[in-house]
Every structure is written in structure tokens, then in C-alpha cells.
Design goal:
Elements (H helix, E strand, L loop, with lengths): L2 E4 L6 H10 L16 E4 L10 H13 L3 E3 L3 H10 L10 H9 L3 H16 L5 E3 L4 E3 L14 H9 L2 E5 L5 E3 L11 E4 L8 E3 L2 E3 L9 E7 L3 E6 L23
Parallel strand pairs: 1-2, 2-3, 5-8, 8-10
Antiparallel strand pairs: 1-11, 4-5, 6-7, 9-10, 11-12
């Protein structure tokens, strides 16, 4: 199994296209294909905050239809899904950009995108266990003892991380550093919490390098476990990036 696992895109379609081209994918049609048969994988949060969320949805949908990719939903995907179901969700924290983009479409196109994303979300597992359990892809990560389980506590963990119920001064949730204590054999690849560079610790890899906050969009190559990145075109917000006590491993870019 040879994969290129993409971090949180958040509507940064141009960066996504540039990254796949850097990885050797060809856009001969309107989606990327690798000449050597590698597949893409996505850790969720395809949409919100960035300028082209709908283009990302369409591309990932096509890739899944053609069996060229794997996808797991993130918390932003979950919220957009609930919006498309007509649930009462707060249109904030980035969702407003996707909703505004969607509202610019005519009714027929709105319905097409709505159905497309609902299908994408409803057919996605909460997390992927791949390559004979050697690899797990989960949006915000997953505890070792949760692998193989799918109850509500697992869903909360996978979508939001190991939250305590408390909030920081800026309103963001307090999260425990689960990766610091992970001792499992499976490699865990995740995103959700922006870091300046790929964070590798205890066989876990956080590959959300803050593309939508002016960082970069990153892919982790599997099984090579090396990374490739492209710089973001978005404004830089240093306060959006988390730092940890131990060293954060830099990208092994080539």
C-alpha cells in the first residue's frame, strides 16, 4: 500500500493542487492521478475558512468514486454535514465561508453539492484502519484502546481530540496531549491541531501544518514516512499554531 496522506485542506484548493503535482500526480482530467498507482488519503476538514471549499469537495468526491483515495471526516466536515441536513448549527468558525460560497450557486448547483457532500460523508468511516492494522488515519487522532471501537466517546475523540471540557481564554477547547502517551504499534496519522512542522512522536504524525492560517499544506508519504509540503498563499496567523514541550520534528522535505 502506497499512500500520500494530505493534512487539513480547509478550502485551500490551489495549494492542494500544487502539492499533488509536487507528489507526482497528473491532472490530465479534473482530478489527480499518480502514474505509479499511489493513492491519496485525507485526514478531514476539507472545507471552511479557505477560498475554494466546494472545489475541494468535488475533487475528493470524484477520487472516492474512482477508488483513488481514502477519506475520513473532521469536525468541520461533521458540522457542514449537519448544516446540509438542515440542523440548527452556528454558522461561524469558518463554516460561514463555505456557506457563502455555496449560496452563490443557483438552486440546482446547490442541491448537487449538497447531495455530493452528504454521500461523501455518509460513506466515510469514522477512521480508517489500513495495511493490516499498520496504519490508522483519524482526524484528531485516536487512543490505542479506542482502535476498533465506534461509540460516541470515540467519535468525540476522533473529531475533536482528547478534550477536557475546559476552554482557553480565546474560547478554544483545552486538549490533552494524547500522542505523548501513545504506545500502540499502529502508525497514527492525523491533523486537526495546526503545528508549524510535522509533529512525529511515538509512531504518531500530526500533519496539519496550518495551510489555511498561512503555514503550509503537507502530505505524509506512506510507507516511506517522509513528507512534502507547499507554502500557503493565505495570511499568516502565528497564534493559531500549537507548540509542545518536546521537540517538534521538522518536515523531511526533498
Amino acid at each position: 500500500m502506497k499512500l500520500d496522506i494530505i493534512g487539513d485542506i480547509h478550502g485551500c484548493y490551489e495549494e492542494f493542487k500544487l502539492l499533488t503535482e509536487k507528489l507526482g500526480y497528473r491532472w490530465d482530467q479534473n482530478y489527480p492521478q499518480h502514474p505509479a498507482g499511489r493513492k491519496l488519503a485525507f485526514v478531514g476538514d476539507l472545507t471552511d475558512r479557505g477560498p475554494a471549499s466546494l472545489a475541494v469537495i468535488e475533487t475528493v468526491y470524484l477520487l472516492l468514486k474512482k477508488d483513488l483515495a481514502y477519506y475520513v471526516p473532521g469536525n468541520h466536515c461533521d458540522k457542514l454535514y449537519r448544516f446540509f441536513l438542515g440542523r440548527n448549527v452556528k454558522i461561524a468558525h469558518g463554516l460561514e465561508t463555505t456557506v457563502e460560497e455555496w449560496k452563490q450557486l443557483n438552486k440546482r448547483e446547490q442541491e448537487r453539492i449538497r447531495k455530493m457532500f452528504k454521500e461523501l460523508y455518509e460513506n466515510a468511516p469514522l477512521y480508517h484502519v489500513l495495511d493490516n492494522q499498520k496504519l490508522v488515519i483519524a482526524h484528531a487522532g485516536i487512543r490505542e484502546d479506542y482502535i476498533g471501537q465506534y461509540h460516541n466517546k470515540v467519535k468525540t475523540f476522533v473529531l475533536y481530540g482528547d478534550i477536557t471540557g475546559e476552554v482557553h481564554g480565546d474560547g478554544s477547547p483545552v486538549r490533552r496531549d494524547w500522542a505523548k502517551y501513545y504506545k500502540g504499534k499502529s502508525i497514527i496519522v492525523y491533523g486537526h491541531t495546526p503545528v508549524s512542522n510535522v509533529r512525529e512522536i511515538h509512531r504518531t504524525y500530526n500533519i496539519d501544518t496550518g495551510a489555511v492560517f498561512g503555514g503550509k499544506l503537507t502530505a505524509l508519504k506512506y510507507p516511506e514516512l517522509t513528507s512534502e509540503s507547499v507554502p500557503s498563499s493565505m495570511p499568516f496567523f502565528a497564534e493559531k499554531f500549537r507548540t509542545f514541550d518536546e521537540e517538534v520534528v521538522g518536515n523531511k522535505d526533498r
